[in-house]
Structure formats: structure tokens, C-alpha cells
Structure to design on (318 residues):
């Protein structure tokens, strides 16, 4: 009976792994550069840094480096191809911003809409320093 | 210290609270409009998705006549919903070019047999390169292209019967 059990187990394993393989093939991205790193390690580092600061368009809370979405894979392939062609990361970022707006980039910029975000902490800090100095002056008096 | 000054932190806190409360009641808009409207189509040549139909290339859309460019996929559920409205545009004589995203000929054939074929040509974009180049962020999306190959309008999501009057108005504007 042992050989029967072993045989059945082997068959089950074969069926299971075949399904895994066919699933894997179906989900394969079209362009190998979606997953495969660039040959030049310096360029791959540039591409990786950039991918972590570009937003996935369909899964909106994630960067394209972290997302499993097919569109994020296609975007990674574009990033790697452009970096390989010799584009600077900021040129590639600009290419995406020209198509999807500042929204697509996680890198904060100084713009007409975002400058209060940079100024506000300074305003609050100076307000706090002002309050504290006034408070200490009062305690020195008596 | 002036007496009102000690209330300042509380007032600041209250202001922040109101600001955050208001911002939270307006969830982020998930629709990402293309910034390529008003710009010419990029140069591309997409191979035919089906053996018996033409592919899609920029040159075809610069022939002096406007075109309707539909981005779809056979695996996309809302794409099936727009078949009625697209067929109505086809019947009105509007040439509809299609870009199929990450798709297979057998699946596209099954999709068209089931929902009808309003398309004049279908190019297949396996790596979404053209889709990304024109600033489209999903399927289905549609673009109105004027006779010079300039993107004039973007419609995000399925085209429904209720979108037709507006699309036809813009179509007439770019045809004139």
C-alpha cells in the first residue's frame, strides 16, 4: 500500500506544481525589465531610488517599486529602459509628471500649492519660541 | 504677557482640528487626468491585435480627420459596459481606433464576439508604453484626437449612453 500512497502523493504534487507554473507564466510581465535589474549596478541603484518615489497609478497608496500591479510593472520597465538609455532620474521623473502631474511623484517639491507646507513648521516653531521667551521673562521678574 | 496670549495654543489646536476634519471629509479623488491634453500624440506603431484587423499607429490619426481612441482590455470588466455606447458612436460614423492593453488575440476575439465590434482598428500595447505615454492611468479610457493628431479630450471610465451628448458636442467642435 505504501507505493500507492507514494504514487498518489507524487501525482498530487505534480498536478499542484503544474498549476503553479501555468499561473506563474500567465502573470509574467511583458517586459523582463519590470523585474530584472539593470546590468550596470550604479544605474540599477538610480532606477531603484526613482521607483521608490514614483506612485503606482492603479494602487495609489504604493510606490511602483512596492506594487504588484501589472501597470506598476510596466512603469518599472519604462524607468529601467530610460535609465539604461542614459536619462537622468530627474528626466524620467519629469516624463511621468508631464503625463500625470505632480501627483505621480512622491518627491516633495516647492510649488505654488505646496509652499505653505514648507513654511508652516517654521512659523509654528517661531511662534513657540516667542511664547516660551515671553513665559521665561515673566518668571524672572519677582 | 497679555492675558489673551495664553489662549493662543488652544486656538491654534482648534484651527488645526477643524482643518484636518474638513480635509478628511473630502477623500482623495482617485481619477488621474492626463496632462497630455492639447499635446500631439507621441509617435507609435502598435501591431495588429487580430490577424484580420489593422493595428494602430500615429500616422493614421494625422490624416486630417478626427478619431476616437478607445483604450480597453478583454479582461477589464467595465470595458464590457461601454460596448452599447461605442456601437452607437460607430453607427453615427465616428471612426473608433482601439488600443488593447496586455491582451491576447483569442481573448479579444471572444470579447468582440460577445459584446460587438465597434472598432476600425485594434493595436495591442503589451507593455502599456503608449498608454503611459499619453497619460492614461487605466482601462477603459477614451481620447478624442483631432485631424492633426492632437489629443483634445479625455474620458475616464466606461462611456455610457449619458456621456454621448457631451462627447458628440466635443466631436462636432473638433470636426469643424
Amino acid at each position: 500500500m505504501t507505493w500507492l500512497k507514494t504514487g498518489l502523493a507524487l501525482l498530487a504534487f505534480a498536478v499542484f506544481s503544474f498549476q503553479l507554473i501555468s499561473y506563474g507564466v500567465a502573470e509574467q510581465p511583458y517586459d523582463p525589465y519590470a523585474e530584472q535589474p539593470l546590468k550596470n549596478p550604479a544605474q540599477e541603484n538610480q532606477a531603484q531610488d526613482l521607483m521608490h518615489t514614483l506612485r503606482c497609478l492603479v494602487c495609489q497608496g504604493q510606490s511602483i517599486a512596492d506594487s504588484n500591479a501589472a501597470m506598476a510593472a510596466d512603469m518599472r520597465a519604462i524607468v529601467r529602459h530610460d535609465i539604461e538609455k542614459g536619462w537622468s532620474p530627474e528626466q524620467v521623473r519629469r516624463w511621468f509628471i508631464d503625463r500625470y502631474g505632480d501627483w505621480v511623484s512622491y518627491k516633495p517639491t516647492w510649488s505654488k500649492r505646496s509652499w505653505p507646507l514648507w513654511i508652516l513648521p517654521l512659523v509654528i516653531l517661531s511662534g513657540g519660541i516667542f511664547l516660551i521667551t515671553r513665559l521665561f521673562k515673566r518668571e524672572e521678574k519677582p | 504677557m497679555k492675558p489673551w496670549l495664553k489662549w493662543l495654543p488652544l486656538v491654534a489646536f482648534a484651527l488645526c482640528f477643524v482643518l484636518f476634519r474638513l480635509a478628511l471629509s473630502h477623500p482623495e479623488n482617485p481619477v488621474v487626468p492626463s496632462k497630455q491634453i492639447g499635446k500631439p500624440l507621441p509617435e507609435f506603431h502598435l501591431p495588429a491585435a487580430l490577424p484580420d484587423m489593422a493595428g494602430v499607429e500615429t500616422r493614421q490619426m494625422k490624416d486630417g480627420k478626427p478619431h476616437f481612441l478607445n483604450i480597453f482590455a478583454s479582461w477589464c470588466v467595465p470595458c464590457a459596459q461601454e460596448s452599447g455606447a461605442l456601437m452607437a458612436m460607430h453607427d453615427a460614423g465616428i471612426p473608433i481606433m482601439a488600443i488593447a492593453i496586455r491582451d491576447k488575440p483569442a481573448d479579444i476575439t471572444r470579447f468582440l464576439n460577445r459584446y460587438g465590434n465597434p472598432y476600425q482598428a485594434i493595436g495591442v500595447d503589451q507593455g502599456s508604453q503608449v498608454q503611459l505615454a499619453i497619460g492614461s492611468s487605466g482601462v477603459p479610457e477614451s481620447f478624442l484626437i483631432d485631424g492633426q493628431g492632437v489629443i483634445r479630450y479625455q474620458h475616464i471610465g466606461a462611456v455610457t449612453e449619458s456621456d454621448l451628448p457631451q462627447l458628440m458636442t466635443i466631436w462636432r467642435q473638433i470636426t469643424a
User: Anything to note?
Assistant: Residues 22-26 of chain A have pLDDT under 50 and may be disordered. The CA atoms of residues 9 and 129 of chain A lie 73 Å apart. The longest helix of chain A spans residues 115-140.
